[in-house]
Specification:
Elements: E1 8-10, E2 16-21, E3 34-40, H1 43-75, H2 81-97, H3 102-114, E4 118-119, E5 122-123, H4 128-139, H5 151-162, H6 172-189, H7 200-211, H8 227-247, H9 264-267, H10 274-277, H11 283-296, H12 299-311, H13 315-319, E6 326-327, E7 334-337, E8 352-355, H14 358-368, H15 386-399, H16 411-422, H17 427-434, H18 441-445, H19 449-463, H20 471-474
Antiparallel strand pairs: 1-2, 2-3, 4-5, 6-7, 7-8
Helix pairs in contact: 1-2, 2-4, 3-4, 5-6, 5-8, 6-7, 6-8, 12-14, 12-16, 16-19, 17-19
């Protein structure tokens, strides 16, 4: 009885081999007729070797398909000159791999050029890939250099290399935002400009165009986008250009026209101050919403609410906790806020130890007892975009109590900030608890975790109206 494996057969000599015809749709890239690999002299050897051989062939076919897709994109009407050049360079490399001599390359170039009308030595009306192929075959990449990169080229490189847009792990919203911002800038400039040709005047035109937009959620009120939104978008543009400068090997002296472009003063007060975007939840709203969440929400969601309310952490910081990040025993129970594979942190100062006291400590202990598979503290929400799901679910309860757009889940951080201020907690301790930027070098560098936890625990208990712990018990 033979092996029941796809593309496997037994040769006349009795050995087992993998044989598979090259699919027609990739025959332009994989020029051989078939894949043929020996698997072994026995069925046992063939079974052991098959998975690796089959996977390798599948990878070759997929790579060929990507190559053809890239060639089609580079030959399409929307392709950039650099994409066309890269495809032409690949075609030249293929000819050299197949043994083409310099004379053969020249003859191939002449034949390709002759398929178009001629103007002396240059083909007329040739698509970019054909034009670049002719020149590369005649001159080589040393003498025929790639075209200068444009802002569109910078975007494509940024999406591919920095954001890894093709990876299933990449947040599609981040990719979409970067694409929209850069494409809007290209539209505002009126062309896809060379990076070296973008002036400060072009950048100001982009900024003014951004400031003149009306919010999509304006409901017909004509409300303009905020200066803060435009600042974030210009920061993305600046990051794209900076990344391109490094990756394209452009000189450090080349200025970035989108860097430090003034927005707020040009907007003349348009938009809101950071402190006006969100309000703390009024006492009545907070009490009613908490009651609704604890009575009606799923257990995990209720625990998340209690921990956010009782620590002032960002929602994503709580939903992204690992089990090992929660210390509920010992002298100073706390949360360890660190970046992990599921979520980054907003700033460097966000890395911190947050005291667990009162109801937040009880909620953390209950969370540790949840049934789970894996390392996340909250199995349902400890995933990509889990904080978004938790926010949406909690907002449904909050909106049953308050329709004020400034009342959101992030308002709980503002509530904690107010409690700390009213308890006359020092700015340093406030920043240590909330993860805000610290002041001087001494505040950022000096002091051990235990000393900081001792002080912030004392501050947190005071802010929440809990009795101070006996000093002797803490010493």
């Amino acid at each position: 009885m033979g092996l029941v494996l796809k593309h496997v057969e037994q040769s006349k000599s009795g050995s087992w081999q993998y044989r598979r015809r090259v699919p027609k749709d990739v025959s332009e890239v994989i020029t051989k007729r078939e894949f043929k690999r020996k698997l072994g002299d026995s069925r046992k050897e063939a079974l052991a070797a098959y998975p690796q051989v089959h996977a390798q062939v599948e990878r070759e076919i997929e790579a060929a398909k990507r190559r053809l897709a890239g060639a089609a994109a580079a030959s399409g009407p929307g392709a950039s000159e650099r994409e066309a050049y890269a495809e032409a360079l690949r075609r030249r490399a293929d000819l050299i791999t197949k043994g083409a001599t310099e004379e053969a390359l020249e003859l191939t170039a002449d034949a390709l050029a002759d398929s178009f009308p001629q103007d002396g030595y240059e083909p007329l009306g040739a698509p970019p890939v054909a034009r670049h192929t002719v020149n590369l075959l005649r001159l080589g990449p040393e003498r025929y250099r790639p075209p200068e990169p444009t802002l569109g080229d910078a975007l494509r490189l940024y999406l591919k290399e920095h954001l890894k847009a093709d990876s299933p792990e990449t947040d599609s919203r981040v990719v979409g935002l970067a694409r929209r911002v850069v494409e809007a800038a290209i539209a505002a400039i009126g062309r896809d400009p060379l990076l070296t040709s973008i002036t400060r005047e072009d950048a100001r035109a982009v900024r003014d165009h951004m400031l003149d937009r009306v919010k999509a959620t304006g409901r017909g009120t004509g409300e303009k986008v905020s200066a803060a939104t435009v600042s974030r978008e210009l920061a993305i543009l600046s990051a794209v250009v900076n990344f391109a400068k490094v990756e394209f090997g452009m000189p450090d002296t080349m200025p970035n026209p989108f860097s430090r472009l003034p927005v707020a003063r040009v907007a003349k007060g348009q938009g809101q101050k950071a402190s006006e975007k969100r309000d703390p939840l009024p006492s009545a709203v907070l009490t009613k919403t908490r009651a609704r969440v604890l009575a009606n929400a799923a257990p995990e969601l209720a625990l998340i609410w209690r921990m956010v309310e009782g620590t002032g952490c960002r929602l994503a910081e709580v939903t992204g906790l690992l089990v090992e990040d929660v210390a509920t025993e010992g002298e100073f129970p706390h949360l360890r806020i660190e970046p992990n594979a599921l979520r980054t942190l907003k700033t460097t100062s966000s890395r911190r130890r947050v005291p667990l006291v009162g109801d937040a400590l009880e909620a953390a202990i209950e969370a540790q007892r949840l049934a789970r598979e894996g390392v996340m503290l909250f199995p349902t929400y400890g995933r990509k975009r889990g904080s978004d799901a938790a926010s949406a679910a909690l907002m449904k309860h909050l909106r049953q109590v308050s329709a004020d757009e400034k009342h959101v889940i992030h308002s709980l951080r503002h509530n904690m900030k107010d409690r700390l201020i009213l308890a006359e907690v020092s700015s340093l301790d406030q920043n240590l608890i909330l993860g805000h930027a610290l002041g001087g070098v001494g505040d950022r560098v000096y002091g051990g975790d235990v000393a900081k936890l001792r002080q912030t625990t004392k501050a947190m208990r005071k802010a929440l109206g809990l009795p101070a712990v006996d000093a002797e018990a803490q010493s």
